[in-house]
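Before relying on records like the one below, remember that each one covers exactly one chain. Contacts with other chains, cofactors or solvent are not represented anywhere in the record.
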Amino acid sequence: SQAESDPKISAILLDLKNMGRIGLNQMESIGQALSDFKRSNKPVISAGDYFSQNQYYLASHADSLFLNPMGGIDLHGFGLYRFYFKEALEKLRVDFQVFQVGSYKSALEPITRNSMSAEDRSQTRAWLSALWENYTTDVAEQRSLKPEDIDNYINSIPSNLEKVGGDTAKLALSHGLVDELKTRQEVRAYLAQYAGSAGDNDLNLVSLNAYLSQPSLSISGENEDQVGLIIAQGTIVTGESRPGTIGADTISALLRRAGENDRIKAVVLRVDSGGGSAFASELIRQEILALKEKGKPFLVSMGSFAASGGYWIAADADEIWASPNTLTGSIGIFMALPTFDTVLKQGGIHRDGVGTTNLAAGIDLSKPLSEELRKAIELNLQNGYDRFISLVAEGRDLERGEVEALAQGKVYAGEKAKEIGLVDELGSLDQAIAAAAVRSGISEYSVNTLVPPLSWWDRLLYQIGAETRSWL
């Protein structure tokens, strides 16, 4: 939005070659921002030698889309394929003791089966189809195509390529996926009308990082009232957060800080997680309940995933916002323990001893689980599942029977999740933040992104990185 009104910015060039991994819901938000930018009558231009499927989603939002004459566009659809190890584990004489509650909790199938179960195949096809429909609909709308045109581009690739002599760039052009074929030199000449010249034939371009480093673009204002934003991304674990994990202690401390800050009138938790420790999830949920007792609205905005433990920590929110491309649900619990008694016996290795109780040996992976321990684990997992069902029913104001029917580890895409009551609204993080402000009764506010304190070493690395980016 800043670039939209900035007179120094005449156009946006999408250089997507280093885009990296990104979720469909994130791309949707960026695509919406690009569409908003185009309201200024400033063009969005995308040019590339080659576009992956994710890159092409964003590239399709450009007013002018150029492809290298030797390039191509890799569209192939969405799929989920796994290796299955049951037969291999049997050959290796490794026995897995599997415990799970939920018929559709498929995370353990790779070690318990040699192929995808009918239940997992059914639910996976459902959410993959929903996400692919969203992808093709969005791209088709941007390119003035029909969704079936994209499916035809993919499904009839041999005959389509034959018509253009095997030329992948001409294939993309003939199907309306790009506007023109241009070499890098031709693209630079085209951009010169917008970027001018900075000398020595260089275009007058500013990178995103350099533009965002300008002091005037600070997103946190000085308004008295604030909406607190906490980011929870990764696997949920006990202890402190590390890269790729959501540490229960870290998130709990941030929730407490938000509750104690009088300027923060509402809190939004951005959840992007496929789950993790049920115990760690419950620790975070307990802190959420304590925050709500202070009378501050608490909302959850879901990212690409908010499933299993990710939904556990979301269920008590005053409002849950998701993207149509969010995967959520997976209400179920599992545990798997490998035991090596068979392979040890085969090698002539034996283990024996005595103990004062039936459970004195604990979980001994060198021998089969005792019946007492097996029963204890099963009861504990069932208790955890019952807790999960109960907290979802209470948090979402649903009957327990309703939750049990939609649970069993099933995964849902955003629109279906809204239909069955697991989420309240479909929208972006910004929309969730605005909704939190409305709930708290404030109209003028800034967003306070709460982060854990950095060590001096982390601060040094951050500063070095910031200074480096400002020169790029």
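The longest strand covers residues 64-73.
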